[in-house]
Structures are given as C-alpha cells and as structure tokens.
Amino acid sequence: MIEEQADQRLRTTIEIKERMTSLLAQVDEQNTLVGKFNDKMQNQSATFEEMSASMEELLSTAETISGSANDQVDGNVAMEQIINDFKNIKQETTGKLRDTYADIESIVAQTSISNESLREVELTITKINEQSARIGETVSIIVDIADKINLLSLNASIEAARAGDYGRGFAVVADEIGKLAVQTSDSIKEIEQVLSLSSRITADGVTVITSTADMMKKLIAKMGESSDKIKLLQESIMVEERYIRVVIDQMMKNIDLARSIGVGTEEEKKAIEDTTKAIDHANEIVAAMVVEIRELADTSRVIVQNATELMKKSDDAV
C-alpha cells in the first residue's frame, strides 16, 4: 500500500515535471517572442517619433509658406492699388494732353489765318510803297515843270522889261507866275520830303511785317511739330495704358493664384496638424504598449524563474 502511494506520487511528480518542462519551454518561447515584439515596438516608437518630428518640420514649413502666401497677396493688392493710381494719373495726363492738343490745333488754325492776314497786309503795304514811289516820280515831274515855269516867267520878265511901258502888265503877270511857280516848287518839295519819309516808314513797316510773317511761319511750323509730338506722346500713353491693363490683369491672376495657394496651404497646414496629432496619439499608444510588453516580459521571466526552481525541486523529489 505504501509502495503504491509512493509510486503514485512518483508518477505524479514525473508528470508535473514533464508538464513543467513543457510549460517552461512555452514560457521561454513566449519570453523570446515578447522580447522580439518589444524590440519591434521600440523601433516602431522611434519611427513614430521621427515621423512626429518630420511632421512638425512640415507644419513649420507650411506655416512659413502660408505666411509668405499671405504676404504675397498683401503685396499684390498694394501693387494693384499703385498700378491703379498710376493708371488714373496716366488717364488724367492723356486727357490733359488731348485738351492741349486741341488747343494747339485751334491756335495753329488761328495763326494760319493771322499769317494769311499778315501776307495780305504785306502785299497791301508793298502796293502802297509802289504807289508812293509813283507819286514821288509824279512829284519830281511837277517840280521840274515848276522849275521850267519859273524859268519861263524869268525870261518873260526880261522880255517885258525890254518892251518898256508896253510890257509892264505882262511883267506883273510874269512876276506873279514866277512867285506861284516858286511856291508850287517849295510845296512840292515839302510833299516830296513827306512822301520820302512815308516811303521809308512804309519800307520799314514792310520789313517788320515780313520779319513778323517769317517768325509767324516758323512759329506755326514749330507749333505743328509740337502738335505732332503731342499726338505721338498721346499714342505712346495709350500704348502704355494697354500694357498697364495687361499688367493689371496678370496681377489679378497672381493675386487669385496666391489666394488659392494660401487656401491650399491652410488646408495642408490643417491636415498636417491633424496628422501630427494622430501620430502623437499613436506614439503614446505604442509607448504604453512598450511599457506593458516590458511588464509582460518581466512576468514571463518571473514565471521562468519559478518554473526553474520547481524543476529543481522535482528533480530532488525524484
């Protein structure tokens, strides 16, 4: 009976030993797997930390790009205002040039009329000068006639003196004719002096008017050139306005593009922030799992240690 009980305890001890050996092998294998999983989780945790750092860098870059895009939008808006102001100034300048061009055209037209009037005055004074010359010639003829009459009256007086009493009446008449001839000659000479002075004044007037007409012609030519230059300047300003409109259109496209980039950057920034939060949360979970796995590994080591001690006791019992 005692031997049977001893055999039964021996068999039980051997069975416990066998099961403990199997359990020890399983626990040891589990401990190895837990160690490998722990290493992988630590590597995964390090990877998540690197990803988190990279996402923070991306977030910082996105914030910088977003700020730059907003600055670009503000700069483009300011540039648009400057270009619009410049366009308004150009339009005002164009309007003033247009008015100036119209005024110059009107002045040129009036000056042309004045030039024609000066030409007519010049022709009239020239004719007056010619008539004065003819009158001077006529006066010279009259002076010659008066001199001849005076000479004839002198001869008549001499002949009347030779005739004695019979020629006294004729002598008186001849003397009066001589006096009249002298007066006529003196008057004609005064008229000749007046005509000569008038001719000189008229000639001076012709010279002045001719010079003025030449100056007016040159002035008209210069004004015509100025009118053409203003017209070219006006056309150049119109070309500049077309280019300014093109620049404004391109600036508006750039503003819209910058705004789109800003919106996209904000959305990207939001997505990066959400991703960063998710990675941080996953990193926290992985860190917690690493801690739990370490605890599980420690527990496995304790089990292995206890199982080893039981195995020794089983060996001693056998």
List the helices and strands and how they pair.
Elements: H1 2-163, H2 168-317
Distance between the termini: 19 Å
Radius of gyration, in angstroms, nearest whole number: 66 Å
CATH topology: Helix Hairpins
Helix content range of the residues, please? over 70%
By DSSP (H or I, 4+ residues per run), the number of helices equals 2
The major beta sheet can be summarized as:
none
CATH level-1 class: Mainly Alpha
The total strand number stands at 0
How many domain units? 1
* SSE sequence, one letter per element: HH
What does this structure look like?
The chain is built from two helices and no strands. The longest helix has 162 residues, at 2-163. The protein has a single domain (2-317), classed as Methyl-accepting chemotaxis protein (Helix Hairpins), CATH 1.10.287. The two termini are 19 Å apart. It has helices spanning 2-163, 168-317. The protein is rod-shaped and about 235 Å long. The model has no long low-confidence stretch (mean pLDDT 71). It is mainly α and 318 residues long. Helices cover 98% and strands 0% of the residues.
